[in-house]
Amino acid sequence: MPGTELFGDEERREVMEVLETGILFRYGHEDRRMDRWKAREMESLVCDYTGAGHALAVSSGSTAVACALAAAGIGYGDEVIVPPFTYLATIEAVLLAGGLPVFADIDDTLCLDAASVRAALTPNTKAILLVHMCGAAADMDPLLELCRDRDLVLVEDAGQALGAWYHGRSVGRFGLTGAFSFDFFKITTAGEGGVFVTDDESRYRLADSYADHGHDHVGDNRGMEEHPIVGFNYRISELHAAVGVAQMRKLERIRSAKRANKARLRDAVEDLPGLDFRRMPDPEGDSGTFLNLLLPDSESAEAAVASMRAAGVPGVNYWFTNMYHFINQWDHVKNLDAAAPLAIHSLGSPQDYRALELPGAQEVIGRLVSIGVGCSWEPENTDRIGESLRESLASVLGGGA
Ligand SMILES: Cc1ncc(COP(=O)(O)O)c(C=O)c1O
């Protein structure tokens, strides 16, 4: 839970600044807000950090993904390539936009594999919704080449990957639009929140209006603003943005602490026989969020998880059986169960979701155990966790504790 580990006076001060003015709304009220604009400040900090031309803070990572799709022009009937390993928000965002999710396979980068994406393309494919899983970037070069080749729109769901880079460029900045999450579990948190990014001014304008009932945000009379498009309320509150501001200022500190702790954990287990790690095309760009272990098979992964939990290793995740992150548990998506009709109900599924063959995902996620890395762990504490981790893994793999 990195961001929350460092909650302190900075977050309290930012929140108090908002409460002192009483202006919890991100727009207007210049006369009372004492020039305090937390959402704007959070956006500017995200632009500074990532290099994005434009950022829009919104209510969640999920609504940031919704903005990223809408602003990229993805909607009714568009086939969108998605991965089977992500958070459900990715798939929900496509369905609720009126799009049709098409699943392609992943590889040992834990992200979409370009060859599998290529095989899943049809004449109706409009976009790839690329998810950078578990704090590090996908293998961008082949994916970018494919997008160029086949004239596909790239949208990035970097919900889990703020602080991740690919050869000097921040994730979220490869696509036409991108999204970050600032929910409670992320590297930097606003409690709830998200940030949409793009380098394209017109896409930014679309997202800016889409996230606020179509408002064009021109002039000083909110009730008389133009509404060039139909939108909805995805606004962030100033209170959440205030926390986001304090956390953004800590991002690099959190990232380097996590990377250092992750390196210590990895050193503790690296030589164990049969143990492998998630492939990272640019290890220097890793945010350090998770130590992603690949066991020989799903049986050994499950045994390792049980042993780690019994030994008190913190932050152990086994995504293969997780209800929200892996396709095997998504019967409601496969059945198209929804509160109200979606475009996919009338247009039909682009794939038989019940008969998908995604052998890469089944293999790699079955073997994957992710350890969430803390940013406030002292070296001795990290080493103790490393010892427990080693003992647990050695009890399954052999190789000596
Ligand atoms: C990849 C990914 N996308 C989107 C989201 C949604 O973010 P939020 O929880 O802020 O709505 C998450 C949240 O975990 C995520 O992991």
Notable characteristics:
401 residues, alpha/beta, Aspartate Aminotransferase, domain 2, Aspartate Aminotransferase, domain 1, seven-stranded mixed sheet, four-stranded antiparallel sheet, 13 strands, 13% strand, binds pyridoxal-5'-phosphate
General description of the model:
Helix 7 links the parallel strand 4 and strand 5. It is globular and about 70 Å long. It starts with a helix and ends with a helix. The chain has 2 domains: 2-250, Type I PLP-dependent aspartate aminotransferase-like (Major domain) (Aspartate Aminotransferase, domain 2), CATH 3.40.640.10; 252-321 and 362-397, Aspartate Aminotransferase, domain 1, CATH 3.90.1150. The protein is built from 14 helices and 13 strands. The chain has 401 residues and is α/β, with parallel strands linked by helices. Helix 4 packs across helix 5. The strands form 3 sheets. The protein has a 7-stranded mixed beta sheet, sandwiched between helices. A 4-stranded antiparallel beta sheet has the order 10-11-13-12. The protein has a two-stranded antiparallel ribbon with strand order 6-7. It has helices at 2-5, 9-21, 38-50, 61-71, 88-96, 114-120, 140-149, 201-210, 238-269, 298-311, 331-334, 343-347, 359-367, 379-397; strands at residues 54-58, 79-82, 100-103, 125-131, 153-157, 165-166, 169-170, 177-181, 194-198, 276-277, 290-294, 316-317, 368-372. The chain is 40% helix and 13% strand. The structure holds pyridoxal-5'-phosphate.
